[in-house]
Fibronectin type-III domain-containing protein (Parabacteroides johnsonii), 259 residues
Amino acid sequence: MRNIFKTFISCIVLAVGVTSCYDEMDSKSSIDAQYDQTSNITASLGESSVLTFSEVSVNGNISGTEGVLEVGFMVSTSADFVSYNSYKAGEITSSFSSVINNLTENTTYYVRSYAYTIGGTIVSEVTSITTPVAPIFELNGVYTAVDYNTEDDSAGESYEVAIEFVSGSTTDIKITNLWGGGKTIDAKYDSVTGKVSIPAKQVIYVHADYGDVWMEDVNGSQNISGLFTPKGGFLNINSFSAICGAGTFGDQYVKMSHK
């Protein structure tokens, strides 16, 4: 009897579900009206600008949003868009923008905006934008730095870090304000390999409640490693633990770009 009862209830639920689906379906005239609306939508491009040798900013517009499922940009190295990458914009609005990164230096890219609609894909006119040659930097100077949490790769707010060689040395450097703590720490630099080595246990921050915060290598070695890339001026500091007397602030890594 229990099995029969379950089966009977399931049938009722299924019947209600089917009825609900039919109730919620749009009429043919409503669907046709949406299609007519989207078939009249046009897409256009706004201003484009070069941010760095590997980043550009692009802007797009559509004449309406009814029936639009997605908006964004198509980017290709060929004017006929035989192959391209799509970059979806965030919200579906009449004006939208994106920062497109990881581009190749000294390369011409062709860009057009698009709108995916229930009636098909709408594209704009095409514009071209050329990335400049990547600059070559020395290690010393000022950087824009961002800290990342190794658990989820979440990023903190950007801040500035300064690096300078110790007077008379080509290997000894000082790093100021790593982790945003305002402290200056010592490190070694190998100009042949680009490797940076930071001795562990150095204080990078003084917390108002927990006191000194210092660096420790996540693998327990005596040094935290980093790598400087002259083309583009990138300095990445590999994972380290931020430790204080009361515990840990977790494992971090830092990405820096030369200003």
Observations:
- The helical segments are 2-24, 28-39.
- The CA atoms of residues 141 and 225 lie 19 Å apart.
- The radius of gyration is 28 Å.
- Residues 141-258 form a domain with the Lipocalin fold (CATH 2.40.128).
